[in-house]
Design goal:
Layout: H1 24-33, H2 39-59, E1 69-71, H3 78-86, H4 105-113, E2 123-125, E3 132-134, E4 137-138, H5 150-159, E5 170-175, H6 177-183, E6 185-186, H7 199-206, H8 217-233, E7 238-242, H9 255-271, E8 287-292, E9 298-299, E10 302-303, H10 304-309, E11 315-319, E12 337-343, H11 353-364, E13 374-379, H12 398-403, H13 407-423, H14 429-444, H15 451-458, H16 470-481, H17 498-508, H18 514-535, H19 552-555, E14 559-562, E15 569-572, E16 575-577, E17 581-587, H20 594-602, E18 609-613, H21 615-620, H22 630-650, E19 655-659, H23 674-689, E20 697-702, H24 711-716, E21 721-724, H25 733-739, E22 745-748, H26 761-774, H27 793-813
Parallel strand pairs: 1-5, 4-6, 5-7, 7-8, 8-11, 11-12, 12-13, 18-19, 19-20, 20-21, 21-22
Antiparallel strand pairs: 2-3, 9-10, 14-17, 15-16
Helix pairs in contact: 1-2, 8-9, 11-13, 17-18, 22-23, 26-27
Bound molecules: glutamine and zinc ion (ZN).
Zinc ion binds next to loops.
Amino acid sequence: MAVTNTHLPTATILGYPRIGRRRELKRAVESFWAGRTTADELEATARDLRLATARRLVDLGLEAGTAAVPGSFSYYDQVLDAVALLGAVPDRFAGLTTDGGRLPLDAYFTVARGEGDNAPLEMTKWFDTNYHYLVPEIGPDTPIGYTDDRAVREFTELANPADGGQAVVTRPAFVGPVTFLLLSKPAGPSAAALRGSQAHSSAADDAPEGFRPLDRLDDVVAAYADLLRALAAAGAPWVQLDEPALVTDLLDVPFDEVADAVRRAYTALATELSPTADGDTPAQRPEILVTAPYGDLRSDAGDGLALLAGTDVEAIAIDLVRGAVPTGPVPGLENKTLVAGVIDGHNIWRADLDARLTTLEGLAAPGTGLGAGALAVGTSTSLLHVPHDVADEPRLGEDLKSWLAFADQKVAEVATLATGLAEGRAAVADRLAESTSAVRSRAAAPGVVVPEVRERTAALTPADVERAPYAERAAAQQARLNLPPLPTTTIGSFPQTSEIRSTRAAWVRGELSDADYTAAMRAEIASTVALQEELGLDVLVHGEPERNDMVQYFAEQLDGFATTVNGWVQSYGSRCVRPPILWGDVSRPAPLTVEWTAYAASLTDKPVKGMLTGPVTILAWSFVRDDLPLGDTADQVALALRDEVTDLEAAGIGVVQVDEPALRELLPLRRAAHPGYLDWSVRSFRLSTAGADTATQVHTHLCYSEFGQVIGAIDGLDADVTSVEAARSRMEIVPELADAGYGRGIGPGVYDIHSPRVPSVEEVTDLVELAAKSIDPRLVWVNPDCGLKTRAYAETKESLAHLVEAARTVRATL
Ligand code: GLN
Ligand code: ZN
C-alpha cells in the first residue's frame, strides 16, 4: 500500500516530564501508597496534570489539533506501562490481575515496588541516562495480549475534555515492540512464584535453554496491532513507538536479528494494517512515528536508518544531537516524514538556533538532503530528562538562566525552528538573534574559561597519572597501617536518621546557626566512630552525615557548578533528583571534606578513610557542559579532587576512597566509542588519585557486580583496594577478577545492604571463605556491598557485628 499523506505537524517533541512542575504526581502517588488517598483521587490528580500539561504545550507552540503533543504520561515508568498494556505480568503477581489479565492501579505499583516476599521487577538504567526502568520478565508462557485500554482513555479524555475547554489531539507514545523485548529478561515457566526475593535474579536461570524474549515477537506484535486498532477507532491520527534499542550495541543481539525483528514487527503493524479509511472500512491504525532517541541509527554494526526507511511507517524521528547528520538519499524516506531531533532532550543548554536551522535547511534542501518526503522539527529524546522551566529558578543568576533551556524553553525552541523552516529565517529573525547572543554571552562569560584551570590541565603529563609500583605501595601502606589479614571496613555512609536529615535541612533554611550545625554533625561523627570502634572494624569512616547526596555535596562547593531549586528530574518511579549544572571551568576554592574527616581521625587511633566522589560519577550525575569534551571537564574535576587528597594527607589521613559507581553507566552505547571513553575516564580517576603518597592507600568503590565491558578499566584505575557489590552474586566477580590478572586489594561485598535483612555469621563466613579461595587471600577485604545510608541503625549494627566476626573466623584459619 502506498503511503501518500504525511501530515505530522512541523513541530513536535518526543515526550515531556510527567512528574509535574511542583512534583504533583510524586506527591499524589506517594500519598496513595501511604493509604491517605484513594485510587480515584490519584487518577483525578493525574488527569488534571495531563490536561494542564497538554494545554501548556499548546501555549508554548505545539499545535492542538495535529498530534504534535505526545501522550507520554506514566504513573511510574513507560516500560512498566508496556508490561501493563500487554498484561505481561510475571506469574508471582498473577493473583493481582483482574479478569482478562488487566492490572489495576494498586497492582501496577505492586509490580514496580514488590510486596512482602514478592520481589518487584528489577530496575536498571535506561540507555545512557540516569532514568531507571523496570525490566520486564518474559518467558515462553508469559501471558501477552492487548489488555489495558488506559492509553485510549487518556487520548479520548484530552480530545474531548470534560471541562469543555481547549481540546488537544495527542499522539499516544509507547515503548516499541522490538525495544520492549530486547530490554526484557528471559523468565522461566512458572518458576518465579516460589522464589521470594531471589525471584528476579534467578528468573533468567529458569528460562528454557536457548529461549529469548524476542522469541515472543509475534505475540507482542499481535497485541500492539490490537492497540493500534483501538487507537484508530478512538480517532487517534498518530501513534509513537519508541525503538531506542536500534541505537545501541550493548544489548548483545546481532544487528541482523534486530533488523529481522524490526521488519517483521513493522510489516505486521504498518503494512498489514491500513492507516486510511476505505469506503465503509475504517482506518485500522493511526499513522506511525517510530523514534530512535539516544544515539546514532547508523553504526559499524548496521544501518538502522535504512532499515526503518524500508518499512511502511509514516515517520521516523532521529537524534541529531548524539547522532551524526545523515547524508542521503535513503530509499524509502521519500514518502515519510523525518522528525529531525535537533533540540537536545538530554541536557539543559539553550540551543544555537541559527546553527540548528542551518542543519535543518540542509536536510530539507531538494537534491542535497536525505530526500525525505517531509521534514519536521523535534527533540533528540523525550524531555523526560530535563526539568520543567528555567523561569522557575529564583536562585540562578540571570546570566546563567539566559544560557539554559529546560523542557518548556525547548518546546519553544522547536516551535521557533519549525516556523523558521516553513516561513524562512526572516519570520524568526529576532529569536535567532536572541539565541546567538545568548550563545556568545555564554562563551565570553567570566568563569566559563578560567585561564589558570586551562593552563593546569594543558600542562599535565603522563607522569601525573602514575604512582609507584603496587608492590612498593603495598609494603609502605602495610608499614603505616599495620592491618590484619582480611581487613574490615565500610563503604562510607552510615544510616542517615531523620534527625540528621532535619538538622541539615534546618541549616540550609537558615534556621540553625553554623555553630549548631557543626556541633550536631560532630556529635553524629563521634557516635559513628565510637560505634565502629566498638564493632572492631579495622578501617573507619566518618559516616558522611553532612552529605545530602554524594555528587551534590561536591557540586555545591566547587567553582563551575550551580545547583537548582526546582530542577527536579525523574530518576525512577516517584523518585526525583536535582542534577547540578556544570557550567564553567571547575576548581576548588577551599577544602571540601577535610574538616569532617580530620575530626573523625582525631577521635580514634584506627585509620580513618577519607571519602570522595570520583570525577566520572560527578559528571554522570550532573548536567555537563556541551562546549568542552567530557574528558577535559573530567580532568578539571580530577585536579580539584587531587588537591583534596593532598589536603587530607596533610591532615594525617592515610586512606582515601574515591567512589566511581557511575563508571559503567556512562559507557557509550556504541562499542566503537568504548576505547575513547575508557581512556579518559580511567585517566581522570588516576589523575585524582595519583598525587597520593606511596604510603597512602587509595580505595575505590563500584556499586555493581556485572563488570563485563569494564573489567580491564577496573584494573586500569590502579587503586590499591577496590570494593564492589558481590553478596547477591555470591562473589562471582572475584574469580573473574583473578582470571583477568587483577592483583591488588579487592573488597567483594559480603552484606547486601539493599534489604533490611541481617545476614548470619555463617552466611558471611561462607562468602568470605569463598572470596579467600578464589584469589590470593592477602588481597581480600571484608566490607558491605555499598554505603549504609538507606539502612536503619538496628540492622546495621547487627550485620556489621556479624561481618567482623566472620572476618575474624576466617582470619584464624589463614
Ligand atoms: N561512599 C558512598 C556511600 O557510602 C558510596 C555510595 C555509592 O557507591 N553509591 O554512601
Ligand atoms: Zn555503592
